[in-house]
Amino acid sequence: MAATLIATAPTGSVASPADPTDQSSARPVERVGLILLLLGTATAYLWNITVNGMANNFYAGAAWAGSRSWKALLFGSLDPGNFITVDKPPASQWVMGLSGQLFGFSSASMLVPQALMAVAAVALLYATVARTTGSRGAGLLAGAILAATPVAALMFRFNNPDAVMVLLMTAAAYGTVRALERASGRWLMLAGAALGFAFLAKLLEGLMVLPALAVTYLIVAPTSLRNRLLHLVGAAAALIVSSGWYVLLTALWPASSRPYLAGSDDNTFMDAVFGFNGFGRFLGHTPPAERIALPEGYQAPNGLLQSFNDFGSPGPGRLFAGESGFEISWLLPAALVAFLLVLALRRAPRTDLVRGTTLIFGLWLITLGGAFSVMAAAEHAYYTLTLAPAVAGMLAIGLHQLWQRRDHAVGRIGAAALILSMGAWSFIVLQRNSDWLPWLRWTIAATAGVAALGLLLAAIPTPAGLRVARSRVAAVLVVIGVLAGLGGSTAYAAATIPQAHTGRSPVVGPAKPVDTGIEALIHRQTQNFADGGAFLKPQLVAMLMNSTTRWSAAVDRGSIAAALELASRTPVMAIGGFAADDPVPTLPQFQQILAKHELTYYLVQEMPLPASWRVPGQPGATTPKDKPWQVTGSPEIATWVADHYPATRIGNIAVYDLTEHPN
């Protein structure tokens, strides 16, 4: 049964196989294999999915808003009052918000569609690899590798935009492979349309696979160069139409009757594309300094107020180190080796589909991996979900090609190289978390090492009478070695699924021990503030629930506003958007909102600062502080409110009732 995952199709075959989605021609074991793969993926990813609760409050708040307001759903607003959008385009919010419209908003209605996207991505990758190789077994292997990738097990059960983006990128790759078979401009246009919607999920990141698809079609498609260029122009037009309609909508819709487009300085979509969240991340522009800063004369210990996980230093090792190493790197070296081996060993015409799909996945890995490696701005480890389909597809194709050549020395040596790279790197990654299942890394290393050594010995010429036995032994060694090499990634994915994941930068793997040091405590308090937990006082939530204005409250930062929305199920205005960096509202705009009686409360957290944070020699360090530090990103609004309205304090939250007559 295990061998079925790698086998079948005659060596050197370049003919297009039957459509792998048509199971009428599949053998019973292949039909059962596909059913088990898809059901297994669905079961694993849907199992206890609500353990993640609201996952990322920021996007959960927008999903709730979309379930309450069609305009909020259309624009991806953070609140049903439509003050400001999330900091990404709304494609992912369309799915989660519409699910909330249909089934009522809940953790399940929000997260179940994300898990089903994993099943769809696995099915598309299966179809892509099976169609390319003529082997449904190779397709099953590709789908299984994707499903057992830790970052996939994390992010397809989460509510960030990455799930829908990666599904659409995989769909674009499938459409391009279909186009390569017979130079189909129609299929290439469908691939372009998929990328257009990927752009509407996460801006430029959704288009980063575009060079791999375009270059491959230009090289491989079985038609004249003129036709290839015309087809690419048609695909570009489809991409522009599928994404441009939304850009045009935001430009034509009166700004006064739609939410502010977060991530822009001038309330336009294209400014968000060319700003920090777009080109800025890839060109290394310095991210905007958060407007929430310590008062003069104070400085926090280096890195203590960092609310994201470690991004790692730019460079070629970034994808293999830190959290990225745990999320994606397990099979990345083997996938790169497979890319080189297939290109070196494959002898076929320019239009060969196997080499074409190899170019798609290989260039995909190189393009995105290179971009993430040099990105000078914030690079979260979970971004590497975009690499998962390419890793899985490339490794499956490489193993299939070597399996076909298992009767030859070059096939055995190549298989040994792949198995050794899989097992050795899994050992290294597991060594970084050496307290977790210490036996696993040694088992993987020993099994992969023995299998690779056996394959190398099997490549030595032997008498004719032993060749049949040698071939059978080599086949068994390949299967055992591959299963061992997949063990680390699969085990870490399995350990990821039961854990509760919340916040802005979830991580993979088993539960980590809680650090009890003072700096860790302050760091957790900072994250609690950033995620809005510090504001969730029962008395305060009850006050918001009793409000009757368009927005129950206004507060700095989108994640805090979203947390209050989810707790009170009332619209909350996010001053400054996601990180208090968007220039809305200005003080005059805020005053105009109050004049229309559309806002009930203004909230701000107050925090005493340790004396040890004072910087000697600076004016603020020697001035007694009569008031605690107000953690606000818009001091102009905070000062004006404090000067005109009395405050009631609930814990360390100052609550200003804006329905009172101002001083």
Walkthrough of the structure:
The chain is mainly α and 663 residues long. It has helices at 28-46, 57-68, 70-75, 91-103, 107-133, 136-147, 150-155, 162-182, 185-202, 210-220, 225-252, 269-274, 276-283, 322-327, 332-345, 353-374, 388-404, 409-431, 438-458, 467-485, 487-496, 518-530, 538-545, 558-568, 587-595, 619-622, 635-644, and strands at 551-556, 572-575, 599-607, 629-631, 647-650, 653-657. Strands 1, 2, 3, 4, 5 and 6 form a 6-stranded mixed beta sheet that branches. β5 and β6 (653-657) form a beta hairpin. The longest helix is centred in the middle third of the chain and has 28 residues, at 225-252.
What's the topology here?
Elements: H1 28-46, H2 57-68, H3 70-75, H4 91-103, H5 107-133, H6 136-147, H7 150-155, H8 162-182, H9 185-202, H10 210-220, H11 225-252, H12 269-274, H13 276-283, H14 322-327, H15 332-345, H16 353-374, H17 388-404, H18 409-431, H19 438-458, H20 467-485, H21 487-496, H22 518-530, H23 538-545, E1 551-556, H24 558-568, E2 572-575, H25 587-595, E3 599-607, H26 619-622, E4 629-631, H27 635-644, E5 647-650, E6 653-657
Parallel strand pairs: 1-2, 1-3
Antiparallel strand pairs: 3-4, 3-6, 5-6
